[in-house]
Amino acid sequence: MEQGLSSMLRHPIILMVLNFGILFLLMAVQRVPVVNVLVTLLFAGVMGASLGPAIAQAVSLPGGSGIVTNALLLTTAIFFSLSLYAMVSGKSFSFLGSFLFTGLIIVVILSLVQIFWHPAVLQVIVAGMGALVFSGLILFDTARILS
After folding, report:
1. Do residue 34 and residue 22 come from a single domain?
2. Does the structure show a pLDDT above 90 at 7?
3. What pLDDT, in 10s, does the model give residues 41-67?
4. Same domain, 69 and 40
5. Cα dihedral sign for 36, 76, 135, 67?
6. Which range marks the domain in which residue 87 is found?
7. pLDDT at residue 142 above 80?
């Protein structure tokens, strides 16, 4: 088992494909009690196995712990402020759904392009689009949960 896990960690594309597969499985069992919780836990475990080594590598860089800490604090601040805005405003952000889905597809495609082609400007574009799309998804999902 340990050899299989270390092999997957050396080849992150395997974990990425596995994560997508588990997401599709999760959509299929979302209304099946107990199974949906087990598949969610499986997804969390595989996602942790994917992100753990990346975060550990970032922390090992000079100044890396500060980078990870800043990312955590900024992400937390953005999440709470956008969620609070969605709660206080009472607006419906359902009109953003198709734009966000399209943006998400574009981010995924550009991320796949980045695997083979590495211009710095593409990294900035993907990071910026990702930040905007996922900020919009926070508003969209929080408003849906509240309605």
Report:
1. yes
2. no
3. 999 999 988 888 888 888 999 999 999
4. no
5. negative
6. 64-147
7. yes
Place of tokens 């999902």: 141
Alpha carbon 119 to chain centroid distance? 22
State the chain's mean pLDDT as an integer.
91
The residue among 67 and 12 whose pLDDT is bigger is 67
| 43-46, long-range: CB < 8 A, 24+ apart | 43/19, 46/15, 46/18, 46/19, 46/22
The Cα 7–Cα 59 span in angstroms is 22
The answer to whether residues 74 and 144 belong to one domain is: yes
The pTM for the full model equals 0.75
Tokens 């836990």 identify what position? 41
Backbone φ and ψ for 117, nearest 5 degrees, come out as -135, 130
Closest CA to 133 of 88, 102, 89, 110: 102
DSSP 118: -
* Same-domain pairing of 86 and 136: yes
Q: Is it the case that residue 37 has pLDDT exceeding 90?
A: yes
What's the Cα-to-Cα distance from 129 to each of 58, 87, 91, rounded to whole Å? 22, 24, 23
Q: Among candidates 72, 83, 54, 101, which has minimal Cα distance to 142? A: 83
